[in-house]
Structure formats: structure tokens, C-alpha cells
## 1
Amino acid sequence: MSIRVLIVDDSATMRGLIAATLRRDAAIQVVGEAADPLQARQAIKDLDPDVVTLDVEMPNMNGLEFLEKIMRLRPTRVIMVSTMTDKGASATIKALEIGAFDCVAKPSPKDPRTFEALPAKIKAVASAPLPRGEPARAQPAAQRATPAFKPDGRLVAIGASTGGVEALLTVLSEFPENCPPTVITQHMPPVFTASFAARLDRMCKPRVTEAVDGAPLRPGHVYVAPGGHTHLTVDKSGGLHCRLTTADAVNGHRPSIDVLFNSVAEAAGKRSLGVILTGMGRDGAEGLLTMRRSGAETIGQDEGTSLVYGMPRAAYEIGSVGKQLPLHRIGAHIVISTNQQG
């Protein structure tokens, strides 16, 4: 049975481009188009699509307002389509927190092929459970108590993809202000990761920034791989620090989780802890196995709490995962595990 998709965008040109991209995949059926949220609301009722692609900025009611309404009244699988601007990226990150499953950037002269990933994203989220009517909200950092914590010197490396915005917020909300140095690769388009890091920084106690080349890895700091053009790796020469490389995509991704995990295994070995979270595909599975073989502790998100149980499943099936945990227990487990005893 075909996956039924509704396209919502105020630009007829953009609707046509999305539709043409999706119609090249026999598993996907474009059942309708809507130019604004008012048309979209009726179309969702009439057509009952499996997945909706939603523009962030539209007339009559912006995409965020519309998303909040449909997630409250009729939870729907939504993929956000956004311009690669600071405003568009910020709105998209908010949409992913509200309940959108994933995002894709609109094509630009610099990156005209951004829609190539859209069919795979749609097929991945079509089989996922419908979102909850009310998304989980992370408690602001100032309202959480900080347990006594002394980092044991280990480096934490986390990989995530589809569903990772909410998952990472859930994990990092458990981290104390002086958390272990933490590096993250989240599959996300260029520009979006800066907004994502800023959002995490506001919501969590540690300092969260987009990684820059040469940045030393320090306790109390979380470093998010920049999206799109480089891989984030860890280099041990002269002390652990971030290194951004311009190598080719790995597993179809740049940044790649495998690249990060492999570098952490080499740089830190048993003095590291690796985590694979929700996401489609298998990026990170082999790298996490390398970390485990180097003596690192490894954790995988379980199927029941994964928005898309793709990457965690691939890692589990090849023996990369030492311990499988539900999302709400992963952050606390990391803190307990990396807390220096005595």
C-alpha cells in the first residue's frame, strides 16, 4: 500500500518540486496539496494522509501555529520544509520540539539537492507511531536540582537522527552543569545545528555550542557537530579537542556518526562512553562497535521509546550496544556512570 502524502506550502513552485520528487518513488502517493493552513486543515480531514510536509512560513497562520493546533487536535506525522536561514532554522527546531518528526531544507543555489533525502524520510516516519497529543516538555535548567557530581574524566559521544531533537533534549536535561565533555552528531541540515545548539544551551545546565575546529573538550561543555559540510571528529594530539574535516559523506551523511565514534574510539578508547539514539538507517552502528571493542561503555535507545528504531536496531543487532535503555533513563545513567566514585 502506498504512503499517502499531503504537501502544504504557499509556493506553487515549491509544491510542484516536492510533488515531482515524491512521485519518482513508487511507494509514495501524493494525495493532495494545500497553499495555506486553512486549506491544509480541511485536506487533512478529507484525505487522511499518512504524512504531511509542512512549510514553516505561510500566510493566514504560520507553520508553527498550525502544527501546534494539529498536534493537539489530530496528531499527525509531519516533516517540516524550511528555508536555510536563521529564522527558518529556529522555527524548525521549535517545530521538532512541538512534535514534527523530521525536517528538510528547501533547495538553494549552494545546495540544490536537499529534497533527495525527502522520500526516505517520509518512508521512515510513515511506519512510526503517531505523535502524542502533548509533546514532552523539558524542565528549564534552573528548576532542576543538581546532584553532587564529579566527572571521572571520560568523554561522552552521542549520535542521533530522526527524532533526535526531543531525544537529545531529554538526555541533556539530566546533565549537571559540570557534565563530562560531550560531543554530538545529529543529522541536520546546515544552519539548523546552530539554532539547535542555542536552544539546548538555553534549556540545559551545561554550556552547549556548535563545535568549532580546535575547540578543547572540557567538562561542562557539549559540542554539536555543524550540519552539512564537515564531519566532527575528536583529536588527541595535545589534549582532546574537536576537529572538523571536509571528507566525503559516510553512510550518506556529513556529519556522520560513524566518523565521530571511530575518532572517539581512537582518541579516548575505554575513557569514553558512546550512545546511539533514535534515527533511520545504520549510521553509527559500526562506529559504536569500534568504541565498544576499544573498551568504551556503549548504550542504545530501546525500540519502545525510539521515534525511528533504525540506527539503534542496527547497532544492537551487530553487538555494538552494551546496554539498551528507554530514553528517559539514558541521561541519568550517563551521569551516574561517569560520576567519579570516592
## 2
Amino acid sequence: MAKKVKYFYNSNTLSYEKVDLNWKKKTGRVLGYLATASIFSAILLSIAYNVLDSPNEKELKKQIEELTVQYDILQKRAKQMDVVLNDLQERDNDIYRIIFEAEPISAKERSIGFNGVERYKALEKSNYSSLMIQSTRKLDMLAKKLYIQSKSYDFLTREVKNKDRLLASIPAIQPISNKDLTRMASGFGYRIHPIYKTRKLHAGMDFTSPVGTEIYATGDGIVSESGTERGYGNRVEINHGYGYTTLYGHMSKIKVWTGQRIKRGEVIGFVGSTGASTGPHCHYEVHKNGKPINPINFYFNDLSPAEYAKMLELSSRINQSFD
């Protein structure tokens, strides 16, 4: 095969002349081709590296997408669990513990132990340390809240078993039977003292009745004090447990002794006018956790709705107390 001969048109001579390439020109053309090819190759490789994914990269990205979806699902579930748990905590404090006369668990008690950072030190070396620490802390908080709530329900379960004892212990009747009452002389609140003529808190209720009328324990308990003092005269105090105590004053005679176990409705003494009193009556107080509360709220075993309404009206009148 004959070698191809190349010609070019020479405008000066107005004729075609043979192209004669020496080795320098040939080498230059080859190097130019190689340089152009290298540049285009570099551009194509750069595009492929930055834009197009390798099979391995595609697989890794797919795994990351799947893990991200699973992580989002777990986060939503953790949030739902936290909402449910908060609802259980509110029910525990605002309903169940009120029913059983128990102190609510404070927010501080429920969250104690979450302030330390040392327990998450090992996770700081991870490439996703912030994400890992955040998720681990959230799970730890849920676990601690669940543990505290579980213990609370254990406590409430025991209280349910003791419910009969609780109901028997809470003061729930009048210290004087309705048939023996002359009148309800004075109720809970600020009244004029009959002797000192000053306005002071009357911490109980006065039930007027003839001397010798029986006085009843208003709930099960143990006699914590039985004796005489200047103000209340012959008096009896009963500790009913669950934070409740009751006091009965101005007795003509005491029938029980300190340390004696008492049942609701049992006679503990008799109406009198001993101590700082202006007439025969039973002064009666109810205390919860050491503070006097209105006894009118504790006659649900004794009075009909009509009788309770009448008692409430009489006890609310601003008058002079008997002691």
C-alpha cells in the first residue's frame, strides 16, 4: 500500500505543494495529541469521581439512607414513649396518690441522676458522637423514668392491699352521735374566744351535749396522748396513721389510756366542761401532717346530704366559740 502524500495550497505561489514533515514537527504533533488526550481524560475522571458513584459508594449511600429512616422511626417512638410516660406520671401524682393519701413524686426525684456527663465519655470518640450521646441520654432518661414509675406502682399496689385499713383509719364520723347533740356551737375558722374576747383561730368544732354524753373515736388508731392540760382540760389524742390525728377536749372523764389501740365508734370518754370552757361540749380537731384542717369534711359516714348541708351552714356562722 502506497504511503499517503499530503499537500497544502500555497497562496503565494498559487499552487499545491507537498507537505514535508520533519521529525520535530511530528514529535510536536504527537505530544500535542497526548496533552489534549490527557486533559480530556483528567476532566472525565474528575466528573466521574465527583458526580458518578462507584458501586461500593452506591451501596454505602443506600445503607446510610436506610439507617437514617430507622433512626427517625426510633426517635419518633422514643418521643411517643416519653409522652405516654409523662401521662402516667401525671395520673400517678394527680389521681392515684391523692386517692391513697400519698405524697406526689416531685419532678426533681423523677429526673435525678441525669446531670452527669462522665458516663458518655466513651462515646465521644465516635464519628457520630453528638448523635450517639443524644440518643443514649434519651434512652437512659426513659429507662430511669420507667424504673421510678414501676417502683411507684409497686407502692400503690401495697396501698391497694391496705385500702381497707386506710378507710377504717381516716376520721369519718362525728365524735358525738346526732341523737345526743344539743346543737353545733361553733365551727372551724376565726372566732371570738369566750374567755379572752379576742379573735383567734378555732382549730376544730364544738359539739354541745349534756355532761356524761359518750364521745366516740372517729377512726381506727392508737391513743397517742391521754391526760389533762390547762386549755383543753381532760383530752385525748389519737394517731390514725397516714398523717391523720384527732383531738377530743374538755371531757368530764377519760376512758382510754396512752398506747391503747382504738376502733372507730369506740367510746373514749364523756362530754364535760374541763379546762378553758364555758359550757359542756366536745371540742374536736382533725390534723393532717401536723396541720389542723376543717373536720366538716370528714363526716361522710354519718350524715345524709341534707344533714351535711345543715351542719355546713351552722359551722360557717361567725360566732363565739365555747373554748
## 3
Amino acid sequence: MGLFLALSMVAVDHAEARRGGSFGSRGMRTFQAAPPTRTAPQQTAPVQRSMTPGTAQQPGAAARQTQPNAARPGFFNGMGGSLMRGLLIGGLIGMLLGQGFGGLAGLFGLLVQGLLIGLVIMLVIRFFRSRQQGGPAYAGAASGGRSAGASPDWQRNAAREQAGRPFQVPGIGSGSGAARAAAPVQSRDLQLDGSDLDTFEQRLSEVQVAFTREDHAALRRLLTPEMVSYFSEELAQNAQRGVRNDVSDVTLLQADIAESWSEGSDDYATAALRYEARDRMLDRETGEIVEGDDAPSETTELWTFTRSRGGEWKLSAIQEA
């Protein structure tokens, strides 16, 4: 009896994982865990498969950020040091070749010449470094009639550019349209009502029916392009195996909203859905059950929907709870 129950649980788990776990996109929150709800009280893992770019930092970037003022090689460690070492070695070689104290005096003369040359080179290097850093060389420069007061703006823009953020052009206020377009997209909470939850319940049944019927036109209407690609990929794999996924008698048992927010002109909502359905794999030719059984199984998932302002809600992610 225990072995029978174990095999049944394995079969049901395989059927429920037919779409390959958690996948899709949740906007800026794709790689964040959704908050628990009454329907899904356990912490749900973030999306595992997504076309949304990750935010992993490049190797060494943290070290560069934590040490912005790392010491540069000094003059005597760089070209000046190489020059001085060459002069010293040349003088010593001359002395060893028999020039005696005269060679030593010549060495001192070379040292004096080398120090003068090194001083000139150091001044030139400092001049070009000050030009590159935009310090005093830019402080008094007039740009469009602006005085030294433009220097802080230039420094802030340089810091923004290094951080990969859009910079603000001096003289354009934060309330202008150009500055708003350059500002990064912010996430803000969104209030939903009961009609939205009713729509999500309707989408649950519509998506299952479209997937069972392998109705690609309906899937394109109900899903985001990314989700359409995932579903189409699985339907193609089922066809290659000679099976089709039959999901029927979908009944929603409990549902609530985990979170809802807006990003620019797009709205997002993640709903926890606990539903019951018959989920089976059937042979495409004979219709016989290949995986699963006729007994209904219970599933809890997080479905994320998105819409553009004034548009319809579309499924953009599914997470296993």
C-alpha cells in the first residue's frame, strides 16, 4: 500500500510539472520572492527560467567600487623610475669599465640631468591628469554662459554615467519631459478590486483549455510572447513524443492577491491560485492514458499577469508554490 501511494505521488508530481517548474517574467520583481498569502502560506522560490536580464554584478566591479581612490603607481615606480634606474646602471657600468672617479663624477652629472628631466615629465603628467579628471581645468570653463557653479553637475553626471544610470543635462530641470524620460523606471504599488481577481480566475480556465486543445491563437491572446514561446516549446515536445496533455475539470478552490504593482505604463499582479483538475498525458493516436490518472489532483501556483494601460490582463509567469 505504501509503495502504491509513493508511485501515485510521483506520477502526479510529474504531471503537475509539465511546464518545467517556475518560468516567465515579473518585471522588476522577476528574481524576487513573492510574499506569502493565505492560499500559498509558504515562501515561494523566485522564477527560475526567464528572459528578463539578471542583475549579477561583473567580477571585480565590487572591488573597484569599494576602492575608488586606490593609489596609483608613483612617479618613481613608473616611467621616471625606469629612467632613473637606467641612468644609475649606465653610470655604474662606466665606472666599472675603468673611468674611476671621473666615471663617478659623470654619474653625478647624469643624475642631475635625470632629475631635471624627471621633474619636467612629472609636471606634464600632472597637467594631463588634471585635464582628464575635470577638476580645475573645467571649474572656470564657461558652457552656455554658466560659471564654476556647473562643476558639481558635471561631477554628478560623471558618477551617474559610471554607475550605468542616465545623467541629467545641466540646465534642464527635473520636471521637464526629457528628464522624466531619462529617469529610471520606478515600481509602485497598485490597488486592485474584485473584478481583477475574477479575471484571473477566468484566465486560469481559459489557459488550461487553450493548452489542452493546442490552440496557439488563443494562447497568443492570453499569454505574453515569452510565455507563448514556453508553451509552444512544450507542445512541440509532446507532439514529438506522440502524446498530448489533457487538463480538464478545472475548479478553483481558493485565490488571493500576493502583490500588485506598476512599472511605467505596465501593471503587474501576482495571484496565488489553488485549484483542482484532472491532468493526464494521453497517447495521440489511441487516447489511452500514458501518465497520470482520472483522479483529480490539487495544485497551488502563483500566476503573474501583466497589462498595458487600458489593455487586457495576460499571463506572464507561473511559479510552483
## 4
Amino acid sequence: MFRGSMVALVTPMREDGSVDYDALRRLVEFHIEQGTDAIVSVGTTGESATLSMEEHVEVIRRTVDLVRGRIPVIAGTGSNSTAEAIELTREAMEAGADACLLVTPYYNKPTQEGLYRHFRAVAEAVPIPQILYNVPGRTACDLLPETVERLSHISNIVGIKEATGSIERGREIMARCGDRLDVYSGDDATAAELMLAGAKGDISVTANVAPAAMHALCEAALAGDAERARELDARLAPLHKALFVESNPIPVKWAVHELGLIPPGIRLPLTWLSEAHHETVREAMREAGVL
């Protein structure tokens, strides 16, 4: 249903932490001009954890309005409260999002049966297309392939963002689910190989900084051009790594600010990138051809 380079968009903020909607407009136009294939609004990289419910919905609504149907908008609406996830997903659908991205419930560590019932409840309550999001490194919760297979039989669960970085995990999900469910990479460092193995795209942090290059990489991988995809990926590899020298989205917001696109704002408990890492990220940006 969705393909290519899907940017996990940062939420621009002023130094006082307030959301900067003028900068959001600039970001949307930048990504459309650079060939980004879809925008993921208010995911992990968009600081969903520290936005209020009202801000969360407003950023999604503004993003949809700014995009004006030119590319898909996928709204991050996950929560560790099933009722809250349903509410956010309904609000995103009413705001005009094309799909929703739902992270596994964090902190409360549900069982696989609990995960199945959580995602089924959201899907049954809100008829928008939904993409599962598995990132156990941040959530202390792993959505296993057999549970994904069960969920793939629910008609409006259309994909999964697999952020374990495991190609074998991605292959297993594809083998189990077939055409019922699309797999997307959630790990830039392994995205090219996962797409060459059959995934349909990459929900990308790196695309915030190098959108044209990530679009070209995804295009090559989806076309089965392994040589071109790996060549582009090799150039981007230092950037994939540098954008995680501190917790995401700390480095990527600094990098997008370095490009002159957003002010230097981030919300506590996250802090601005430590000066010791500035040159590391700058050098990776130079190698990627964006500075």
C-alpha cells in the first residue's frame, strides 16, 4: 500500500519547546521537493512521548493540510494504553491521515496475547489502514512473528515497521504473512538489505537529513538493483550511524537544524546534542553530500 522512503519526520520546536508550525511547513515542502515518498508524522522521531494529546493531533492535522494529498501521511498513534491508542487513531483518521503507525505498548510489557488483543481492538474500533511498529530496543516489548501472522488476517492491518535490525526476522514475517501484510524497515543501517529481500520501504530517520539520497536508495532496492542500492547505502552508512550517537531524535534534530530548516528546540528529558558529537555528525553529513 505504501512504498519507498518514508521519513519519520522530526517535530520542529523553538528553543522554549513550543511547536514551530512555520518550520513544519518548510519541512513538508523540503521533503516533497526532495522526493520523499511519504511522511510519518509524530512517531518516535517526532517526539510523540512529550507532546500533549492536543499537540499530537494538531501536528498531524497541520501536516495533512500542508501536504495537500501530494504524498501519503502516516500518523503515529500508538500508546501503551489501548483506549488512548484508539482515541489518537480515530483523531488521525478524522484529520485526514492516510494510515496510522502503532508502536507496541511500552513499559507495561504485555504478553503476546495482550499484544494481539491490543492491536485487534484498535483495528476493529477505527477502520483506517494500520501499520504495526516493533522496536523492542525502546519499548521492552517484542512483537513476535507468530503474533504478526495472527494480526495479518485483520483486513485493515496492512504492514509492520520492523525495527529490530534483523534481516532474518523480516524474512520470517514475509514468509508467514505473504501478500496480506507489507514489511517496512525501521532501521536505516539494514534497510537496503531488507528491501532487497522483499520489504516495501523504509520508515527512515536518515531521510530527515538526506531525503533525495534515501529516495534513490529505496528506489534502487525496490527495483532489485542491488549494486546501485548498496553503493548508495555505503555512502550513507556513516550518517545512519552518526544519527544514533545519542538517543534519537537528539542527533537528527541537531542535523536538521544544521541544514537551516528548524530552530534548536527539543523537549526534556531529551537535551540538545552534546558538543563532543557535533563534528562526528557534520562529517557524516559531508560524506552523504548534504553539507
